[in-house]
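[09:14] KT: can someone run the structure on this one? pasting the chain below
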Amino acid sequence: MRQIIVVAQDIAGVELRSLREAVASTGRPLTITAATTAVGFGVLALSRYPALHGLGWLAATSIVLCLAATILLLPVVLPRRWYEVNSGRS
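[09:31] RB: done, C-alpha cells below
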C-alpha cells in the first residue's frame, strides 16, 4: 500500500524529493490503519456465534496478510523504471 500511496501522491503532483521520503511518510499511517482495522475485526473473533467468530478471524487475518504483502511484495512488483524516474535519477 505504501507504493500505491506513493503513486497516488505522484499522480496528485505532490512534490517528492525521493522515493525513500515518500515511503517514509506513508509507512507509519498505513501500518496504524491496518492494525486498528485488524483489531476491530479481530474482536468479532471473540464472539460465541460461529458466523461472527469466523468473519472476525478471516477479516483480521486477511488485513494483516494484505499489509504484509504490500510491504514485502509490492516494491518488487513495481517496475524498476518507476523507481528511477521517481527517485530523481534518469
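[09:33] KT: thanks! Residues 2-86 form one domain.
[09:34] RB: yep, looked fine to me
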